[in-house]
Amino acid sequence: MGYLLLTTPPHMADGQLNMAALLLFFVVLFGLAASLGILIALQMHKRWPALTGRPFYKPDPIIAIRQGGLFALAVVTIALLAFFQLADLAFVVVVILLIVLFETFLQSRFHD
Fold first, then answer.
1. Residue 11 DSSP one-character state
2. DSSP of 50-107, one letter per residue?
3. Domain limits at 102?
4. Total number of domains in the chain
5. Tens-place pLDDT, residues 28-62
6. Long-range contacts made by residues 43-48, C-beta under 8 angstroms, separation at least 24?
7. Distance CA 26, CA 32 (A)
8. What is d(CA 88, CA 104) in angstroms, rounded to the nearest whole number?
């Protein structure tokens, strides 16, 4: 995470980007964000079942997995924008709105 925070990508000895290290970083970041997102979503679904899109049913853990994955997708997308120095408040807001819109579509499409 220090590479992203300091905006210095990992370089090989010849000065080129180490693509394997970058790929590994973003895969690990996705896994970390997804696992934290799933845990948070599970706890929030116990407290507020309406967040699953099915307020009168027992919360389904699959919905928490989907929401955690979408959260991780948003985190990795924003991290990639920051890595390529394209991160702007407008881009961050658009990414978040697109993820929320997609989740809303999935909830309305697959509602029982």
1. B
2. GGGT-TTSPPPHHHHHHHHHHHHHHHHHHHHHHHTT---HHHHHHHHHHHHHHHHHHH
3. 2-109
4. 1
5. 899 999 999 999 999 988 888 877 777 777 778 88
6. none
7. 10
8. 24
